[in-house]
Amino acid sequence: MKSIFIKGAIQPAFIADSIAKHQTKHSIGAHNIFLGQVRADVINDKTVAAIDFTCYEEMANSILEDIREKAFKTFNLTCMHIYHSLGEIKAGEVCFFVFVSAKHSKEVYAATEYLVNIVKKKVPLFGKEIFEDDSHQWKVNK
């Protein structure tokens, strides 16, 4: 399995290209996409300007391989793609992209929700919130 990590924000052209590549796969009847975007949250009267994402890539890729295997066994998927940004991602930019495909819509909805939640819970990804005043703190996933 290739690494899911992308340096910098996930660009709209990358997302569009991922979708376009599936047009030749005629057994697919449904796609579902989740895009995670950095929010400009206000915390203690300070606004988040960006999040700096880091991770333990080797460990993360191993965990993601297990997640991928379980997802294909649990849901009747044709394709599954997960990408997450590393580095500083500004408010408004996309940092998390989950794209699943199957014959029917029921599978893609359930699989997308499962994948988004399990990645947030199990993968050793860390985000440092950077505020407009250049102060920072570690982000807590909710």
Architecture overview:
By secondary structure, the chain is α+β, with helices and mostly antiparallel strands. It has one domain (5-138): Aldehyde Oxidoreductase, domain 3 (Alpha-Beta Complex), CATH 3.90.1170.40. The protein has helices at 12-20, 57-74, 105-122, and strands at 5-7, 30-37, 42-43, 46-55, 77-90, 94-102, 125-131, 136-138. Helix 2 (57-74) runs antiparallel to helix 3 (105-122). The longest helix is centred in the middle third of the chain and has 18 residues, at 57-74.
Class by helix and strand content? alpha+beta
**SSE pattern:** EHEEEHEEHEE
CATH architecture: Alpha-Beta Complex
Cα-based radius of gyration, to the nearest Å: 16 Å
Which blocks of ≥5 consecutive residues have pLDDT under 50? Answer: none
Instruction: Tell me the count of domains.
Output: 1
Count of strand segments = 8
> Helical segment tally?
3
Multimerization status = single chain
As for the CATH topology, it is: Aldehyde Oxidoreductase, domain 3
CATH class: Alpha Beta
Could you say which overall geometry the principal axes of the C-alpha atoms support?
elongated
Overall pLDDT confidence: 94
CATH superfamily: Molybdopterin biosynthesis MoaE subunit
> What's the helical proportion of residues?
25-40%
**Share of residues in strands:** 35-45%
Query: Mind describing the biggest β-sheet?
Result: 8 strands, mixed
Distance from N terminus to C terminus (CA atoms, Å) equals: 28 Å
